[in-house]
Amino acid sequence: MGPPLHTKGLRSVLPIVLALICNPALGATGFVYDDAYLLHATGADHPESPQRLKAIVAHLQETGLLDRLTRLTPTPAPADSLTTIHGAKYVAEVARGCDEGRACLDAGDTTICKDSYRIALLAVGGAYAAVDAVMDGRVRNAFCAIRPPGHHALKDQAMGFCVFNNVALAARYAQQKHDVGKVLIVDWDVHHGNGTQAAFYDDPTVLYFSVHRSPFYPGSGAETETGSGAGVGYTVNIPLPAGSSDAQYLDAFERVLKPKALEFRPDLILISAGFDAHERDPLGGMKVTTECYGRLTRIVETIAEECCDGRLVSVLEGGYDLTALADSVETHLRVLLGDE
Ligand SMILES: [Zn+2]
User: Fold this and answer.
1) Omega of the bond prior to 215 within 30 degrees of 0, cis?
2) Residue 152 annotated in active site
3) Mind listing the pLDDT tens digit for each residue in 138-181?
């Protein structure tokens, strides 16, 4: 004779109740931010300003979203952890440049201040903290409101406001620290992520997908750039003409990214989340709406749900209209939180 009926009912519900009690993070979204990120001073009228993060945080406070996010505290990445992507000499050069009070690095478009080295390490550490939280199951997904951005940073060169390549470093960190096999990087910043592409060009364990304006800064990202050696087929570039809007972005994600990603089956997804393709952005020259960022997020989230239990870490890159940036981050986070 089996247990009474009411016990049977309880038994079927119990695992779900227990799972929720034991792991309240099942639906949680992590949020990496620290006031120290404001200390990376780029100079008056520089588009990549501390105001960007101030606008995001103020807006998330006003909308009540901040209270619903799980705050993740970043610590500076150890300098020697950067050599998975960058040359040790370059890392030391950045440290020295900041110490000596230099105004900019390399090509001159990456301005720095005395604190920039320290804050750039904290930005990388922020991406690491998000990877840790997602991989440990403390949160389901996470967004990093960090600066300086990273996707243009090359092995031995700062470029395009980027000092260290936060997303590329996070991918390697996930592979080395958490034994993650395959990482998908989705880069929807309006500029091509030349640094990230270069880091994994011959690597079949990291699929790099970028939609960007072309021709445009930094000049790379042609459709014919598909990888080299064992990495052929693991770099996917979708260059779009100036003035492109939601339809082209959604088409690229549905028609190209989705099948490619589902075939690749990543164990973790990273987003290089730049919001400078927004119709209001002063630099991007594209016509993407705030709402579209929600739809792009949903597509990536669907891939994450299907391939890797929803494990997704999104890292801020560009986005220079403060209102558009704050609104787009809100829309992005609402999808990550499961509201939409
Ligand atoms: Zn950009």
Assistant:
1) yes
2) yes
3) 999 999 999 999 999 999 999 999 999 999 999 999 999 999 99
Determine contact, residues 173/81, Cβ cutoff 8 Å.
yes
Q: Where are the domains of the chain?
A: 28-336
CA–CA dist 4, 324 (Å, integer): 58
Ligand 1 centroid to residue 217 C-alpha, Å: 9
For the chain, the straight-line distance linking the first and the last C-alpha, in angstroms and rounded, comes to 46
Query: What spacing in Å lies between the alpha carbon of 198 and ligand 1's midpoint?
Result: 17
Q: Are 245 and 280 in contact (CB under 8 A)?
A: no
Q: β-strand 104-105 against 110-111: which pairing, if any?
A: antiparallel
Is the per-residue pLDDT at 19 higher than 70?
no
d(CA 296, CA 200): 23
The CATH code of domain 28-336 reads: 3.40.800.20
Marked catalytic residue, from 40, 59, 152, 192: 152
C-alpha 220 – ligand 1 centre gap (Å): 13
